[in-house]
Write a structure and sequence with these properties.
mainly alpha, single chain
């Protein structure tokens, strides 16, 4: 009869992982509205949006997105 407390990491739904990713994106790139963040479907879309909103080169945007995402994917 174990009443050990459960943590959020035990069975975290995919929704929460996406929410965490979107929050991290919003912190890094504050020009994105919540609506724009919720509409992102792929990392490539994020790269394109960063290029558009911040006027950076695609290669720089790709590097920054890759660093932030750290192997994570918006489609996951």
């Amino acid at each position: 009869m174990s009443n050990a407390p459960t943590t959020n990491n035990d069975a975290r739904p995919q929704f929460n992982k996406r929410t965490e990713i979107l929050e991290a994106i919003g912190v890094k790139w504050s020009k994105f509205s919540k609506q724009e963040l919720s509409e992102l479907k792929t990392n490539d879309e994020l790269v394109a949006q960063v290029v558009d909103k911040y006027g950076v080169e695609k290669i720089a945007a790709q590097r920054d997105v890759d660093a932030l995402m750290n192997g994570r994917n918006l489609t996951a």
